[in-house]
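Let us practice reading a record.
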Amino acid sequence: MGKRTDGYALWERAVHRGGIGHTAAAFALLDDVDRLASARGDDVLSSLALSTRASLWRQAGRHRRAAALDGRALRSVGVESPTGDVWRRAAVSDALVGLAADHLGQLRLAAAARLLARARDHVDPDDPGWPAGRRPRLRVEWVSSELAMYAGDAVAAIGHAEVGCRLAEIVDTPNGTA
């Protein structure tokens, strides 16, 4: 991964901090990620940082603000089907799933469903790795479960949640794959 490693590792730390509720620390780390991405002209790293910021705002109930950030994230990497570049696939998926969650939070269920379908098209089901494999699939299942709950479909909600739980339980090996 060469020069990407430090910025992407920093982004992963920001995701972890946000995931355990250390929102201010996550935002501070994302500021550093933004500086690195800008200095390098790295649109993928910038997109990941934007989507992560959006996720933090969404957790605070700020879905419109999150949608603007997710939209910028998607614009920065495009929606073409990324091939080969694990991080670009992760960035496109994060932006699409984020936009779906933003729409879900604003009760735009049909738009959320369309965005989740697009996100599924960008996820490689055969990739056992965390960044562009299991993590994006887990996010798709999580938001799909929420969408099914909003739509009153308990069976589908449980099904998506169970798939998500199985993905989350897989333990990575030192090289980052299952």
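A brief commentary: The chain has eight helices and no strands.
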